[in-house]
Design goal:
Blueprint (H helix, E strand, L loop, with lengths): L1 H16 L6 H4 L9 E3 L3 E7 L4 H13 L2 H9 L3 E3 L4 E2 L15 H19 L5 E5 L3 H12 L7 E5 L5 H7 L7 E6 L6 H15 L10 E5 L2 H6 L7 E3 L24 H20 L6 H14 L5 E6 L7 H13 L17 E6 H4 L4 H6 L5 E7 L8 H14 L18 E6 L4 H22 L7 H15 L17
Helix pairs in contact: 3-11, 6-12, 10-16, 11-16, 12-16
């Protein structure tokens, strides 16, 4: 199979040579835009502004079959052992299935506990503040969801994970112990940042002896005994499968804190949207399959056009943290160089993912996009609903796509020229709700998985993160660890 991938990489390199001197504006006259728009109930995917022609597209569409994508999708959607380097199952798609699956009873029993908590909470708010101690994938997803649903919050939600505790201290200044509950979220429940924040917040509660600490602490983890050791009673524990990766955990009880201002039906809608994305990915021919096309174009831009950065720009304030979420999902999954055979991958793997809320980026980083020397590929994500009387944000999105791709040359005054030629795709969301958000996030998950299959790497481990943690622990436990590498003037003061 590695020979197949080497052949693919070589072919991409050869095809890409023809496009080094082609400007996207040259393709505007030859492209049939409608043929490159995939329209679904939730959204449309427009890739008509990519730097590619039909010949190259025809080759790309063959790649999934060369690498047995259909079989790999089946293994993914049934929770099989496909995390090769750790010999683990991968189960995040099971979390969003509508009915119970044999062997995954924990997922559905925990779903009942989520329902019970949210319904009990909705019947009468017993608290006004929720502190969520979480980091990495346990934070980015819930924080995105919380911002998405923040229009009518009756309960204040604070996300905290900083090692210097400043986030937590600031949050606690706005809270009273009697009106506050804490969720500590960590799959291992050994994450140093979370444990440090948890100890501080427990001391804060102890300042009020009349408040029963145990009643205010909740935990979300795969490690029940560690939660118990930290003083979290069993009734307040929400369990995860050990096979659930952090950056894929948004579908589990990890997101429970985000829904305290909503209800269980909202949570189910979110899961259902993701489930529909699973069905689209599994059942749609490759040429009309959105995550397949997204993955193939990403591979094309990186390995045929030598573009090593990818911007994701959102044009709705509720989605302002989406880029951060996608960046972690993509770079923690595919930011690797070693393939399944323990060899260096012949491909340029995931590009650097950057971007953010497009309205703000237009006044800062877009200068680099407009007139810098480095090309980047881009996703533009916005709401295109005919029921919106005035959709200025979406019009602005389209104008920026035009600038990024077509550009504008001013020969008399070069300082006013915009180079263009950045390959862009547009994701148009029809109605921005939890169902469409779930659909969108699951599309990006599948894109990442399909990319990894082509690259020949494991998208479900994160050894680089683990090794970084090990270095930190060594430095913390052994004060002499850093001395051979740094001068005494920059070492931490005792």
């Amino acid at each position: 199979m590695n020979n197949v991938r080497k052949s693919i990489q070589k072919r991409l390199s050869i095809l890409g040579r023809d496009f080094k001197s082609i400007h996207i504006s040259d393709l505007y006259d030859t492209s049939d835009f409608k043929e490159k728009i995939i329209e679904l109930d939730f959204l449309a995917f427009d890739y008509s502004k990519q730097r590619i022609d039909q010949k190259a597209l025809d080759y790309l569409i063959q790649i999934p079959d060369l690498l047995n994508l259909k079989e790999s999708l089946h293994l993914l959607l049934t929770g099989e052992v496909i995390n090769r380097s750790e010999d683990r199952a991968v189960t995040h798609t099971i979390y969003r299935k509508r009915t119970s699956e044999d062997g995954f009873e924990l997922i559905f029993s925990e779903r009942k506990k989520i329902k019970s908590f949210l319904e009990q909470n909705k019947s009468g708010y017993s608290f006004k503040n929720l502190i969520c101690l979480s980091i990495g994938g346990s934070r980015t997803g819930p924080e995105l969801l919380s911002e998405f649903m923040s229009s009518d919050n009756q309960i204040n939600i604070y996300f905290c994970s900083s090692y210097d505790l400043e986030e937590l201290k600031e949050a606690l200044r706005k809270c009273k112990q009697s009106e506050t509950i804490v969720f500590a979220s960590s799959k291992s429940f050994e994450t140093s940042e979370i444990l440090k924040n948890l100890e501080y917040v427990k001391d804060w509660f102890r300042e009020k002896p009349d408040v029963n600490l145990e009643d205010h602490l909740y935990g979300i983890s795969a490690n029940a005994s560690a939660m118990t050791d930290c003083g979290i009673k069993k009734a307040h524990q929400f369990l995860l499968l050990d096979s659930l990766g952090g950056r894929f955990s948004i579908w589990s009880s990890i997101s429970l804190p985000s829904f305290v201002n909503a209800d269980y039906l909202s949570y189910k809608d979110f899961l259902y949207g993701a489930h529909l994305a699973d069905e689209h990915t599994n059942n749609t021919p490759w040429k009309s399959n959105i995550p397949v096309l997204m993955a193939l174009l990403s591979i094309w831009n990186s390995n045929a056009l030598d573009i090593s950065t990818h911007g994701v720009f959102t044009y709705n304030f509720k989605l302002r943290s989406l880029t951060k979420y996608i960046a972690q999902l993509s770079m923690e999954s595919n930011g690797k160089s070693i393939n399944f055979d323990s060899d260096v991958s012949p491909f340029l793997t995931t590009p650097l993912i950057w971007g953010g809320y497009g309205i703000e980026n237009q006044h800062s980083t877009f200068q680099w996009l407009m007139q810098g020397k480095t090309d980047t590929s881009c996703d533009f994500i916005g709401i295109n609903n005919i029921k919106i009387d005035k959709n200025d944000s979406y019009e602005m999105l389209l104008s920026q796509v035009l600038a990024m791709t077509k550009g504008k040359q001013d020969e008399s005054f070069p300082f006013k020229s915009v180079k263009g030629n950045n390959p862009c795709s547009i994701l148009q969301i029809e109605n921005l709700d939890l169902r469409s958000l779930g659909f969108l996030l699951a599309l990006y998950e599948h894109k990442v998985f399909i990319e990894a299959l082509i690259l020949g790497i494991d998208p479900f481990d994160q050894w680089g993160v683990q090794l970084g943690k090990k270095f930190s622990l060594n430095a913390k436990s052994d004060k002499e660890f850093l001395k051979p590498y740094f001068s005494s003037s920059v070492l931490p003061k005792s």
